[in-house]
Design a protein that fits this description.
Layout lengths: L1 H12 L7 H17 L1 H26 L20 H16 L3 H32 L4 H13 L1 H18 L1 H4 L4
Helix pairs in contact: 3-5, 4-5, 5-7
Length: 180
């Protein structure tokens, strides 16, 4: 039924002429399969996100009640320890071993670990990026252009930020940079 709805949408949009039906049907099925395989990782990521927002709300409530809390580090200073990179290494190893040995569950477990690790390192990369964008001594309009270009090239930006987050956990780029 979902395939029929998608086929109808593609036909009405005129996209069915540019790609053979079999090709986009296969892409649709592969996407649905990948989303199903990554449900555990999506649950973990959304649990992290919802726990963070719950923590922010509780922190705000506690501050309104005049309770003393430790200072919250600015986002541009968030950093993960190098040992979190074992998640990326283990996820890659499990995914590759599962694919090579045709062990479906092992491959899916590795992909789920990579998804969660990728999310965490994406946040770390955003932190590094915000640090350098904030400390960059150029006109604010240029900063907005750079941020806009990064938004329009989102797949490349996401991969770059993940790699930047991983590299920062080893090399600590912000420590090496003079503070503003």
């Amino acid at each position: 039924r979902a395939m029929e709805i998608a086929a109808d949408l593609y036909t009405r949009a005129g996209l069915s002429k540019s790609l053979p039906r079999e090709e986009w049907e296969r892409a649709f099925i592969e996407t649905a399969r990948a989303v199903n395989e990554l449900i555990p990782a999506q649950i973990v990521v959304w649990s992290i996100v919802s726990a963070f927002f719950a923590w922010l709300i509780l922190r705000w409530i506690f501050l309104k009640l005049a309770l003393s809390l430790p200072p919250f580090p600015p986002f541009s200073r968030w950093q993960f320890s190098w040992w979190l990179s074992w998640g990326v290494i283990g996820g890659l190893g499990l995914a590759l071993a599962g694919d090579t040995l045709s062990l479906f569950r092992l491959s899916v477990a590795g992909k789920n670990i990579l998804f969660v690790s990728g999310f965490l390192y994406f946040v770390a990369g955003l932190s590094v990026g915000s640090f350098f964008l904030g400390n960059w001594r150029i006109h604010p309009a240029v900063k907005w252009v750079v941020a806009g270009a990064a938004f329009f090239y989102l797949p490349a930006t996401a991969v770059s930020l993940i790699v930047l987050g991983i590299a920062d956990s080893f090399f600590n780029f912000r420590f090496r940079s003079p503070a503003k």
